[in-house]
Amino acid sequence: MKKKILVVDNHPVMLKFMANLLEKERHEVLTAKDGVSALHILKTYTPDVIFVDLIMPNINGKKLCQIIRGMPNLKDAYLIVLSAVAIEEGEDFAEFGANACIAKGPFNKMAQHVLYALDQSDQRRSGDLAEKTLGGEGVYPREITRELLSVIKHFQVILEGMAEGILEITPEARIVYANPISIALTGMPEEKLLGSHFIELFSETDRQMIEDMLKTMEGKPQTISEESTVNLHGKQIVLKMVPISRDEHTTVVILNDVTEKKRMKAQLLRTGKIEAIGTLAGGIAHDFNNLLMGIQGNISLMLLNIPPTHPHYERLTNIEKMVQSGSKLTSQLLGYARKGKYEVKAIDLNQLVEETSYTFGRTRKEINIHRELAEDLFPIEADQGQIEQVLLNLYINAADAMSGGGDLILKTENVTHNRMKGSLYDPKPGNYVLLTVTDTGAGMDEETMKRIFDPFFTTKEMGRGTGLGLASVYGIIKAHSGYIDVDSRKGQETTFRIYLPATGAKRKAQRGESEKQHEMTRGKETILFVDDEDMIIDVSQEVLKTLGYKVLLARGGREAVEIYEKNKDKIDIVILDMVMPNMGGGQVYDRLKEINPNIKVLLSSGYSIDGQASEILERGCNGFIQKPFNVKQLSESIRSIVESA
Amino acid sequence: MDFTKLAEDLGLDEDEFWELVELFLETSASDLGRLQSAIDRGDIQQTVEAVHSVKGAAANLGFEEIYELAKGVEEKARENSLDGVTEPVRIIKEKCDLIGEMFRAMPV
Ligand SMILES: Nc1ncnc2c1ncn2[C@@H]1O[C@H](COP(=O)(O)OP(=O)(O)OP(=O)(O)O)[C@@H](O)[C@H]1O
After folding, report:
1. Cα dist. B24→A371, A486, B21, B62 in Å?
2. Helix axes A35-42, A61-70, angle to 10 degrees
3. Digit-coded pLDDT (tens) for A299-319
4. A175-183 — which CB contacts under 8 Å span 24+ positions?
5. Of A517, A614, B58, B91, which has the highest C-beta tally within 10 A?
6. Could you tell me if residue B6 is inside a domain?
7. What is the percent of chain A with per-residue pLDDT over 90, rounded to a whole number?
8. What's the mean pLDDT when you consider all of chain A?
9. Torsion of CA B41, B43, B44, B49, to 10 degrees
């Protein structure tokens, strides 16, 4: 019976012999000199019998057999391996799908075996694999040693285990080897991938570049870098093409998927930008607070000197209120700049959530607030005022997104750092309290979501939103060593997740005392007032004098130390600015403390407390007051320090 | 070497035999060139591949001496050594040249 036959062998002598032999028997024969051409032929030709040489460059016989067996139209083809290697290695050729194996040897013997095998192919029942090894008896004793094979296997294991995709291509850019990763990266089954054109894997736009690089290699490796990645199956890929100098016929291509890495980089860049703007914002807020301080001081002085019946009295108190609003604004900026961490103590987040949401609910009746608060929630170490600010900002945003009413779901739970898996940040291990704030509002698109933490980013109409709400939320959470992320889609719910580290402290979480009523109390002690800004010195001096204090002034750190050294017996308390050129508040404090270990110092700053200020407080400094302060706040702070033992 | 007998032993008619010999000479010439430069470079892997190709075809065509020599070189190389392979390679070339001469002397 006439058969359609394909012979694959890399030796021309073998191909010629087989073709002659089989044609004499009136079969239809095609030959291929390697796996790539074989796969090419098999696209249009469906043979009944295929002879495959086991050891070939590029795609070896074993691989080729496996691929052929995977092709639906060839599953009944009779596969005959030509080699002594299968016998040598003790390898079962049936394992890779062959029906028979013929040992290579003198042509007369081989001719017998080939014809016998063809005969067998007629008689076998379909699906019956692995009949016989023919001619295995000693034509080629120990032809290829185990050593050689084991070296090859060794490399095989390495290639298959690599994290990079590895492809080997011919000078015509046909793929002849693909490791598992590269198969995954291309998203193509191996039998399709092998033999296909390398350049055609990529999109039109990238092809020219890759082709040019392959052409201009001249024996040197070429790289497509992370800056100009190519697109492969929806992934961003870095390519390295290495010519194998040993034989100028092949090129090894190393593929690296950098999609995730690039995404992370972009995010980090964004985080860096937020940080930089934060520093800038903090600086502006600081200067602004000093200005407000000057205004506040002048008003305080005027108010001290006129009776409430004075025609200007009401206007002045109005201005004072506006200064307070201004200072709230800067405190938001400072929160964003993370300079605002102050008065940290163990607090119960549940209690805060309950109180704030209750108050908030009364102002927005169209919103249903649901609370799912965990029992036994870990306490957190935090500044109560700032966390309240965070909560309110989130509530307000949620409510704004639900103009027609909706649900606001507040949830707290105890979690560990494991819950943040897969996020950009690398959380410190430990217990966290997770607060989720979900609303059923308008949601937002990708673009908006990317920018919501940027200061001054707002989608609200002019005059309605400052764009500082979430920026300060971000700053505050960071300052508390916490993490924040958001999940949303246009037209769907929005969920903010905030992780705050649980405190290890056993002490019961307590609620902060409500703000004390500041009393304007007079005194007659002597105060050394240290600040580098004339405007502040002027008004503060006036204010302090009006309150009854005797005031010494220093316009810088060094001067402060000098004056204190001379007058240490007279001076009862020092009011010390944190941020000064040359010698800053911290240094000055240490020098003063050396002169008098029992010195009483009130720190003041246009920044609210930051790491530096809290350090000084930890070293024994007695208090902190944030500019702009009014007369009441100042007198109260002074009294509480002076009167403490 | 008695080529007529060789062809007979292989079950080939003479035309076919000479056709295969011609192919063998062509392929071996390039294999041997590759082999020599691999040996000069000390490239074991290439040496094995090139000499393996010569050896296989020699066995097919019953060129026993070439087969044995090539086998020796291949085994040596597989033990990671190229010591003393120059001589057998030279002899292989000589034998091939001889076959070439006989081929060209053939009455066409
Ligand atoms: N829950 C939410 N649902 C939908 N969009 C939101 C939500 N929260 C914030 N956004 C979007 O993020 C933007 C920035 O919010 P952010 O709080 O920083 O400023 P704002 O609310 O616009 O101004 P302000 O803080 O002065 O009220 C908002 O303008 C809005 O587009």
Report:
1. 87, 72, 5, 12
2. 20
3. 988 888 888 899 899 889 889
4. A176/A34, A176/A35, A176/A36, A176/A58, A176/A59, A176/A250, A177/A58, A177/A59, A181/A255, A182/A255
5. B58
6. no
7. 30
8. 82
9. -110
> Does any domain span residue B59?
yes
Q: What CATH code is carried by the domain that includes residue B86?
A: 1.20.120.160
Tell me which amino acid residue A616 is: I
Give the model's pLDDT for residue B9: 87
A527 pLDDT more than 80: yes
pLDDT, tens only, A456-500: 788 887 666 778 889 888 888 988 889 999 999 898 899 999 999
Atom of ligand 1 nearest to the CA of A470: 18
The whole-angstrom distance between B91's CA and the closest CA on chain A is 21
Verify whether ligand 1 is closer than 6 Å to residue A473 (CB atom).
Answer: no
**The pLDDT of residue A530:** 94
Q: What's the complex ipTM? A: 0.93
Domain limits for position B84: 13-103
Residue B63 located in a structural domain = yes
> Is A111 part of the contact surface with chain B (CB cutoff 8 Å)?
yes
- The letter for the amino acid at A337 is A
Q: Which residue bears the tokens 């998927």?
A: A257
**What pTM was computed for the model?**
0.46
Write the secondary structure of A560-590 as one string of H (helix), E (strand) and C (coil): HHHHHHHHCCCCCEEEEECCCCCCCHHHHHH
Mind listing the pLDDT tens digit for each residue in A60-78?
Answer: 888 888 888 878 888 888 9
Q: Write out the DSSP string of A28-91.
A: EEEEESSHHHHHHHHTT---SEEEEESS-SSS-HHHHHHHHHHSGGGTTSEEEEE-SHHHHTT-
Buried b (16+ CB within 10 A) or exposed e, A527-561: bbbbbbbeebbbbbbbbbeebebebbbbebbeebb
Number of domains in chain B: 1
Q: Which amino acid is at A613?
A: A
B41: in domain: yes
CB-CB neighbors (< 8 A) of B60 in chain A:
13-14, 17, 104-107, 110
DSSP A73-88: GGTTSEEEEE-SHHHH
Calculate mean pLDDT across residues A148-176.
78
**Which of A13, A110, A111 is facing B20, going by the closest CB pair?**
A13
Q: Ligand 1: distance of its center to the CA of A489 in Å?
A: 14
Q: Is the pLDDT of residue A518 over 70?
A: no
Among all chains, which residue has been given the structure tokens 């004056």?
A563
Profile chain B (108 residues) by mean pLDDT over runs of 10 residues: 83 89 93 93 88 91 92 89 91 92 78
